[in-house]
Fold:
Amino acid sequence: MIESQPLTGARAERFLLERYEKVRRDLEARKVPIGKVEKIRFNPRLRSTMGRCARKGERFEIEINPTMADASRIQMIDDVIAHELIHTIHNCQNHSTRFRNWMNYVNSVLPGYCVRVYFHYEDYGLENPRKQVGIEDYPYLLECENCHAQIGRMRRSAVVDHPERYRCIHCHGRLIRIR
Ligand SMILES: [Zn+2]
Ligand SMILES: [Zn+2]
Structure:
């Protein structure tokens, strides 16, 4: 698993624009006939969908799932943006044969890409951020000696290895590792 590096606000917006410009350049360099994009943004209302492409007259608006506002998710966000850009090609607004042919073309001429019809976090070795995890699911567990608040961790990290260096966020008490 890759450590997550979530971005917010202006940094998230800049990250999205950077990825968008890169993917657009890559597709145009291979003569993929993508359409005009009026706007691209993160939409927090997207839940299980990774991206969406809506037609506005002759132009398109792309929305991306904000769970991808994360520097550790470059491969996934690039593939999702490429998928949405393929939707801007003439007669590619659904996942028709024509859409799939362009998708296969992109994947074959741009080896850095693995565009899919459906995206799953697991395909990228990422944890699904929408999956509910209970405290019993964490392989590592820390507890505050004072208020007994528990902190679960999926991976080893500085706080797992050295809980004595950290303090409880609720009461500033000492942390101990109990699992
Ligand atoms: Zn699609
Ligand atoms: Zn505490």
The first helix runs from residue 9 to 29.
